[in-house]
Design brief:
InterPro entries: FTHF_cligase-like_sf, LUD_dom, NagB/RpiA_transferase-like. This is Lactate utilization protein C. It holds the Pfam family LUD_dom. With about 210 residues, this protein is α/β, with parallel strands linked by helices. It has a single domain, classed as NagB/RpiA/CoA transferase-like (Rossmann fold). It is built from 5 helices and 12 strands. The strands form 3 sheets. The protein has a 6-stranded parallel β-sheet, sandwiched between helices. A hairpin with a 4-residue loop joins strand 5 and strand 6. The longest helix is centred in the first third of the chain and has 13 residues. The radius of gyration is 21 Å and the shape is globular. The model has no long low-confidence stretch (mean pLDDT about 90).
């Protein structure tokens, strides 16, 4: 019996055999523009999404992270196994997630929150992009806990979406985060926490 998938693909190839060649796509759109101070704009746009955002000094990160967790009463945190060790501290029980010992869905769901870094951030849209790279972990890590504390370095913030895309590897699993998870699909009523954490806090480290 013929493979149904191959039959369909063969028919598509046959139907397209006489088609004219596809002209090259002209990508002459604007790739960068002056948006002013990217740190200020990013902080403003993140706050517009009802997320908490604070600018902190890099050397003060452990203290600021602990302050954020204490303010939320978060004491059971999950984090990717390659998160910088000096970020972790305080009276917190840390569970580390990695390829060798992935945390269960139950463990992620029961955690008070997750701490990660990011791949890049976009000032114009107030968006954080995760690509499962260093200090970010797998996608489930930032979707199941109800609180996401994300550290964004100042040098990771760019002005526009095209600038961010230029920094990213398109074959990696990309997640674009613009504020806490929310939807208004049903009768335009805003519901938070449907597709991810209801609470997002961003520390801009400069």
């Amino acid at each position: 019996m013929a493979d149904p998938r191959e039959v369909v693909l063969r028919r598509i190839r046959a139907a397209l055999a006489d088609s004219p060649p596809v002209p090259p796509v002209v990508r002459d759109y604007e790739v960068a523009r002056d948006v002013g101070d990217v740190l200020d704009l990013f902080a403003e746009r993140v706050a517009d999404y009802r997320a908490v955002v604070r600018r902190v000094r890099v050397e003060a990160l452990p203290v600021e992270i602990e302050a954020s967790l204490r303010a939320r009463g978060a004491r059971r945190l999950v984090a990717p196994v390659d998160l910088p060790g000096w970020w972790r501290g305080g009276e917190v029980v840390w569970s580390l997630d990695g390829p060798a010992h992935p945390l269960s869905v139950r463990a992620l769901d029961r955690a008070d929150g997750v701490l990660t870094g990011c791949a890049v951030a976009i000032a114009e849209t107030g968006t954080i992009v995760l690509d499962a790279g260093p200090a970010q972990g797998r996608r489930a890590l930032t979707l199941l806990p109800d609180y996401h504390l994300c550290v964004v370095r100042a040098d990771q913030i760019v002005g526009t979406v095209p600038e961010a895309i230029a920094r990213l590897d398109p074959v990696r699993p990309l997640t674009f985060v613009s504020g806490p998870s929310a939807t208004s699909d049903i009768e335009l009523d805003r519901v938070e926490g449907v597709h991810g954490p209801r609470n997002l806090e961003v520390l801009i480290a400069h």
